[in-house]
Amino acid sequence: MSQCYGCSTCKSADKPLEDFIRSLPMETSHHRVETQRTKCGFGLQGVCCRLCANGPCRITPSSPRGICGANADTIVVRNFLRAVASGSGCYIHIVENTARNLRDTAKARGELKGLASLNHLAEIFGIEETDDYKKAERVAEAVLADLYKPEYEKAELVEKVAYAPRVKRWKELGILPGGAKSEVFHGVVKCSTNLNSDPVDMLVDCLKLGISTGVYGLTLTNLLNDVLLGQPELRMAPVGLRVIDPDYINIMITGHQHTIFVDLQEKLVSPAAVEKAKAAGAKGFKLVGCTCVGQDLQLRGAHYTEVFDGHAGNNYTSEAILATGAIDAVLSEFNCTLPGIEPICDQLKIKQICLDDVAKKANAELMPFEFQQREQQSEALIDKIIEAYKERRGSVPMNLMKDHGNDHSLTGVSEGSLKAFLGDTWKPLIDLIVSGDIKGIAGVVGCSNLTAGGHDVLTVELTKELIARDILVLTAGCSSGGIENCGLMTPEAAELAGPKLRAVCRKLGIPPVLNFGPCLAIGRLEIVATEIAAELGVDLPQLPLVLSAAQWLEEQALADGCFGLALGLPLHLGLPPFVTGSPVAVKVLTEDMKALTGGQVIINPDAKESADILEKIILEKRSGLQI
Amino acid sequence: MKRILIDAAKCDGCMNCTVACMQAHREGPGTVYDLDLTDIRNESRNHIVGCADGSYKPIFCRHCDQPECVMSCMSGALQKDPVTGHVKYDEKRCGSCFMCVMNCPYGVLKADTATRTKVIKCDFCEGLADGPSCVSACPKKAIFVEEVEV
Amino acid sequence: MRHIIIGAGAAGIQAAQTIRSLRPDASVLVIASDEYVHSRCMLHRYLSHERDEAGLSFVPEHFFEDQKIEQLLGVTVSGIDTGERRVILADGRAFPYDRLLIATGANSFIPPVGQFREANNVFGLRHLKDAQEIRALADPAEKILIVGSGLVGMDAAYAFLEQGKEITVVEMVDRILPLQLDETAGEAYRKLFEAAGCRFLLGKKATETVMNSSGAVETVILDDGTRIDCDLVLVAAGVRPAIECVKDSGIRAERFIEVDDYLKTSCEDVYAAGDVTGIAGIWPNAKKQGETAARNMCGQAVKYEDRYGMKNTMSFYGLTTLSLGRGAVQEGDQVIRCQDSKGYRRAILRGGKLDSILIQGAIDYSGVYQYVIKNQIDLSGIQTDIFHLSFADFYGVGERGQYLYS
Questions:
Q1: What are phi and psi of C380, to 5 degrees?
Q2: pLDDT per residue over A251-271, tens digit each?
């Protein structure tokens, strides 16, 4: 390689990773930040409209309206609603497939690993059934039936799953959603050309989409996953590029739909598969975690110690994982599978197979997951991956990073495992909050991006600032992947916490940052918050609880964010979601929302300033609760 | 002197230079995210003309060798700096006659929209270490600064 | 080499500056009757109390010191001895020169109407001295009569209206700003001025005056018999080149000083620039003439090219107008008018070329029109409509990044 790619990679909170990526002989997303440095000002503010042939229209002082007459408010909020609807669609796709896989597994009388979760769901859904398979089938059907309702029929499970005081407020505001898929449909109709021009009306739709995204995509997906894949259990696990063992045939998994891998996970460790692997010269197969599906596997790692090596990194670590040379195949079923991995896979002869056509990669083989064909598909996948292994091993250089990450990050945190750890009650946590030993809780969630300071830079800096202020941090999403690789989920990270939180961590032997896993688990954070609120007898906005999607990346994150707002929580974003061109959108999101749901958006790219703002809000909420 | 050179064939009409200029000359602090794009007081010193043939023509102050605007200025507000070669505009001196608008042969100048008492004129972002904001903002390198012989 | 420049207006100052930059060591002396270097185009801002004497300057503070230019301001040149190569002042002092530039400009023309020329309250507005005298009388005055509605008259009217004076403007033609504007464009300003309290008497001429015992005109009588009482009269009826100093010098001058293409007069080493030459003497041209004369005085042979002077911009009450060309329609001309809520535009095309254009409203980026008219660019191949011309239609960039018309 004569070309130097390494001169201009972006920063990463993970310094060893930053050095590794800079040294790579191939281009990655980290290299492209520099060449994409110049951002269009109109795009940043959300005032570029391409909804009709008259466009693109852009707002300037001499052109304050598009040709059609749409002003900045209309253009911005149409674009925003479109993004939220898209993001919601993504999560609803995930929950739909998850429910279908649970239903089909139950019908086929396959293994249900999380009966406690099944019983919990049946109970809140009001399903009485003695047979576990029938129960699971009915639970899954109930979810699906709701997803497929029209927009004009209210979804049934929202009231059963969500916290009652919230449901009451949502009813008052008229934002209870109809069928979740239809809400997406309604949203995209609303923001099409020359339809709705009322920014406030469209922002209300964003809240509805937030609720359906949150209740189905974020809350129920986890619980359905628990039934099929097993409930999370606390444990210490290795994280980072060190988890990759070149002696095995390594499969990097990316996406969000863990239930697609149920059969494959079993088959990969079957004696037959291990035999095949050995015949090819490997010790066996390993799944290497990447993105949220990797987080989900890590979360339930206690059930998969044999097949799962550990979580290597988040979305913007995926290229580095491949660049180690020790990955033989990528199985992807959803985002965040970067298009940028494609040339790297070609170069390193890594087999790419997509298991869901919504995430078909340009140069990958498509094998859409079909439940009835799952066993044959698993066999076929194993054979194809072995072929790739044989083809590439020996000819592709290894570039391992044996010391990257750490070997004892706390994983497996969920509403269930955490409560169990506390003695099956939230009281100890509530007591610590009341006493001020834990000042409050911050959910640092969502993605990683490369522009808010660099890869995970704002996320990690903000997390450090928060724990230093005795604020306990819970994570979900790619933020988890970055934070854990930076060591903040090891018990030693207690050193970085403020004195009170440090003492708590030391006493309990836990890190100051607790990893709930994938972005889907934002729903789990909400369950924790709801249960604490219920125990205190207050509504969610009263809790000393804040959210930060510091390095939000995708449209899905915007739908998540709308859920946070509907829940009445303060939501910090490192970068504005392309809305600042609209005074109405900015005012509604950052000010008026407080009176509507209790939520508010805070936009700040500086870790310290953001932490100051979030701490202030937590202190205000504490005094509101007179603690 | 330093001049912003133009490779018009590279211009895609994104108007990033325009936004960057507005941002560089806004009153009060802030980022491009909160720059009010509808405030007529936020005016760009450059503009891009989209042509019928689909091409774009960046119109930027040349800080001319023989500046007609300076020649036409009856208040002394416009002066060519003997050191930098840049044509400076002193808003306080300006008599608002707009002879410079009429006399710029390249149609670069305009009166300010909000008060019609000032001229909107490139100042080469004097004082910015990285040079003119428009140049930094151009994703195509259609505009770039070079030292030209006087 | 000793350079003397008579006059400290646009041409004189530009010449001094140019000589200094070309000849760092030469001696340069500026002699002028003005006590301050000032911009004549801004005298109305002095009348309106918006600016003081120093605020009218168009040169940087310490200009003469910084540029090492000698100055002798507030003196009168009584003659030029071209044989002895000396400039003689009214106080008897004489200054020898090697090269001389006469840039004395022009003086207001006061027509012989009634006692206009004798009265002590009738003024033209050309020099700061005029403005100072006018302001001393205008401040206590209530009623002011302005004769002539050209730019000088309207600038003054605006200034006095801002001071709350009762203003009457008498104009011979039946519309205001008749040289610069057509009826439609003039009408827009007339309404704005009337809304500000200005009274116009159009299509009328002052013919007689009534002067009181202290020598002030109290009443002006028009050709239709209308009597206008006034405390002060400002006559804005044009200017005449200030050629008094060349009398008996041998420098050829009738109504103005004659110059060749190099701006040299009939006498060796004596040049003239600006209003005094009778070549389009508006500000930018005066400066260019000053520059060209200076170059020739320094031994370069530079022809003066830019004789186009039919151009003006104005701005009153937030309404700006640009006017280029004579605006007179000939047979066979194509006249295009366009009026909308934002303004008014009129173009006169003659043989595929632009002869005149008038733009009222936003005049943004309108600089190309002067070039197109002055250089008689053939527009027949241009697709863009006449009111949307821009440099993009003629776009060219030279090697050093200077724009070129192509």
A1: -65, -30
A2: 999 999 999 999 999 999 999
